[in-house]
Amino acid sequence: MRVALIRLAILGALVLAWELLARAANPLLYVPPSVVVPALGRLLVLDSYPELPQSLLLTLREIVIAYALAIAAGLGCGFVLGLNRLVGRAYGPILAALYAVPAVVWYPSLMLFFGLDAASKIAFGFLLGFFPITLAVLAGVRQVNPHMVLVARAFGARPAVVFAKVMVPAMLFTLVGGLRTGLALSVIGVIVGEILGSKGGMGALINHAYGLFRTADYVALVLVTLALVVASDVVASLVERRAQRWSD
After folding, report:
1. How far, in whole angstroms, is CA 36 from its chain's centroid?
2. No. of H helices and E strands in the chain?
3. Contacts of 24 (CB under 8 A, 6+ apart)
4. Are 48 and 55 in contact (CB under 8 A)?
5. CA 136, 137, 139, 144 torsion-angle sign
6. φ, ψ for residue 167, nearest 5 deg
7. Could you tell me the sign of the dihedral formed by the alpha carbons of 205, 210, 216, 219, in that order?
8. How far is CA 95 from its chain centroid?
């Protein structure tokens, strides 16, 4: 309760500061919460942007596809690199170096190759989600105690049983953490890709409102997008907590 009250007090102070500062600034560029709330209401009742549901569904579909591809490729690549020490030592540093490159530099090439449709946004979301999942699987496999694997094999456990009963529980927390990071980055990749150049989705609506100086609608659209990001992270957090209890 005390933590909740502190958070509420901080949020109230930020909203109050926002209101006071925005009222003293240029109303074309800065809008106070008292103006954003009615704009958000008009947005949610589909008055200012009737295409909001279609745009939101398009963004969600792109996120789901990008994240599913990132999981499939990341798990496969991570296990190949982790279970084969030679391949892992050869390609692990290369993956880490590519992950360190700012991801936004890849987007112009993706946009030229896939165009302005959903494919480039899916590819960008996949690219951002792929690396943390792969590196998490690689790190998880490497942290498995080899003595536990030897004991399981000594008792006659088959490779599939060793993998499912020994390796997966030992690396589960690291794996779920990588999946959570991959989800967050896939969401960010799709939304940023839409903002940088798109014909549809939440990013296209944000660009439209920003380009026409409809600042209140712009902030309302950002808040809806933020709610989408926070909701995805909350779901991932719940899954991570459940996995942590199971692995403990």
Report:
1. 26
2. 11, 0
3. none
4. no
5. positive
6. -75, -50
7. positive
8. 19
Residue type, 181: T
Check residue 220 and give its pLDDT: 92
What band does 180 get if pLDDT is binned at 50, 70 and 90? confident
**143, 116, 114: which is closest to 127 by C-alpha?**
114
Query: Of the candidates 79, 90, 86, which has an alpha carbon nearest to the alpha carbon of residue 133?
Result: 79
Written as six digits, the tokens of 76 are 């496969």
Least Cα distance to 132 among 67, 214, 197 occurs for: 67
Tokens 């991801």 locate to 103
Amino acid at 162: V
In this structure, which amino acid lies at residue 228?
A: L
* Rounded Cα distance, 137 and 237, in Å: 18
Q: For every residue of 190-203, which 3-state class applies, written as one string?
A: HHHHHHHCCCCCHH
For residue 101, is it left (φ>0), alpha (ψ between -120 and 50) or beta?
beta
The residue type found at 227 is A
Angle between helices 118-142 and 107-114 (to 10 degrees): 130
Count of other CB atoms within 10 angstroms of residue 179: 24
Q: Residue 57 and residue 200: Cα distance in Å, rounded? A: 10
User: 205 with 51: CB under 8 angstroms?
Assistant: yes
Q: What is the pLDDT of residue 68?
A: 94
Q: How confident is the model at residue 157 (pLDDT cuts 50, 70, 90)?
A: confident
